Amino acid sequence: MFRRPESYELQKRLDEPRRFIQIVLGPRQVGKTTLVNQALKACSKPVVAISADDLSVTGRQWLIDHWQRARTLAEQHGSAVLSIDEIQKIPDWSSTVKLLWDQDARTPVNLHVVLTGSSTILIRRGMSESLAGRFEVLRARHWNWPEMREAFDISLEEYLLIGGYPGPVELRSAPDRWLEYMRESIVESTLALDVLALERVEKPALLRNLLILGTSMSAQIASLQKLLGQLQDAGNAATIAQYLLLLSDSGLLTGIEKYTATIVRSRASSPKLQACAPALLSAVLGVSSHSDGMTPALRGQIVESAVGSHLLSLVKGSPVTLSYWREGGHEVDYVLSSPRRIVLIEVKSGNSRGAHRGAEQFRKHHGPAPLIVVGEGGVSLGEFLSQPLDAII
Q1: Which residue among 132, 199, 243, 358 is least packed, with the fewest CB closer than 10 Å?
Q2: What was the pLDDT predicted at 268?
């Protein structure tokens, strides 16, 4: 079975001395539980693996009892691992984990702890409330092009449409089933379970419409006011901005900010909407195969959106920020910036002769910065989608 790099990294951390709780975060349906189970299977320590999904009702005492069982194993064998899936389903889980973890530190008990869950929002809330300084995060991202090629033998053209999620790949020969799975099991489930069930959303119809319209506009710059005018519900720009943050935290849709000299101006700019995985754009547009009569404009949007989602995944959890730049009629598709370097990225699905104009204007405003052209006349799309972050910036 294919193992992702995050699985090997978790295995490595479990072989180290006990230091931090390992929290595996990531969008729904990207294989968090699978990668954890693979790491546990390869681990040399005895393991207690439980899930709060196994029982209809779980509570504090249930967690304490299993933790004690894992402690006994650790005392008998010198060390052990306790893995808890769907941790967010246990009421007040973070304060209980904090209490038990701190008890182990005082005793001491050499018990490693791994936490996973399907609700990124709820787990992050618990982390910030009780576990500060006690954990490190391992991010399970959407699947990239090399991973899906190796695991499922899909082509680059297939990846541009169905990339990011391993579960529905086997439905690729039945496009209607693939679309239905994406819409119901991933998009709607994430909305219902990660956002609407956990956050106070006064206008759920507006949130859903924002997801659909915003995803359909992936790789396009959109004024929040103009976007609001196209939605089927009343609201204001501040509400749209807040809902966009919720969708971003759930791994569905985000707004990339404009690169400027000051943070204040950047946050006030119109965002560049970005689907978090190629499959999300296809699911919203209803495009499931290249035989659907794709226009050059749609092809260009799909390619640029795939590059954007790749970059978005790469920078998450890193000190590198992803933005775009536009001034007057000049634009740079994506800007990667770190404390030491800025890299400009232009995506060209057709003629690349105009690719350097935006970069030239950017340099006039912000100084030297190398340009990477993806596509015609530059780095091939497949090569770029295979590159790690440190190969780009």
Answers
A1: 132
A2: 59
Three-state DSSP at 323 gives strand
Left if phi > 0, otherwise alpha if psi is -120 to 50, otherwise beta: which for 31?
left
Sign of CA dihedral 36, 38, 41, 44: negative
Runs of H (alpha helix) within the chain: 5-14, 32-42, 60-77, 93-106, 120-130, 145-152, 156-162, 175-181, 189-190, 204-216, 224-230, 237-249, 263-267, 278-285, 296-315, 355-366, 381-384, 389-392
Q: Do residues 55 and 89 lie in contact, with contact meaning Cβ atoms separated by under 8 Å? A: no
Alpha carbons 311 and 93: distance in angstroms, whole number: 33
Structure tokens belonging to residue 193 = 């379970």
Q: What letter would DSSP give residue 28?
A: T
H-run or E-run covering 47: strand 47-51
Pairing of strands 330-337, 342-348: antiparallel
Alpha carbon separation from 305 to 1, 101, 219, 302, 333 (Å, rounded): 29, 42, 5, 5, 10
- CA nearest neighbour of 145 among 310, 350, 351, 316: 310
> How many other β-carbons are positioned within 10 Å of the β-carbon of residue 15?
14
CA distance to 90, 97, 170, 200, 298, per residue, from 196 (Å): 19, 26, 29, 7, 31
Residue in 289, 300, 277, 278 with CA at minimum distance from that of residue 374: 300
In this model, does residue 254 exceed pLDDT 90?
Answer: yes
And the tokens for 339? 């404390």
Rounded-to-10 torsion of CA 247, 253, 257, 258: -160
Q: Is the pLDDT of residue 40 over 90?
A: yes
Closest CA to 224 of 243, 252, 205, 247: 243
The share of the chain scoring above pLDDT 90, in percent, equals 69
- Distance, in Å, from the CA atom of 393 to the CA atom of 320, rounded to the nearest integer, reads 9
